[in-house]
């Protein structure tokens, strides 16, 4: 395996999908490559957490 350059579907920025990340994805049984760069993944995860916390407060 070699590092791959992918394009984030949210921000359009190129990011590297490293050999190590590819091995991790394969080990976990993930079949698809990431669609978002690490920054957008982090932001999306935080947004989901915030939405979950709001639903618990109601």
From TrEMBL:
Pfam families: zf_Tbcl (PF13451). It comes from the Bacteria. Residues 2-48 form the Probable zinc-binding domain. InterPro entries: Zn-bnd_dom_prob. This is Probable zinc-ribbon domain-containing protein. It comes from Caloramator quimbayensis.
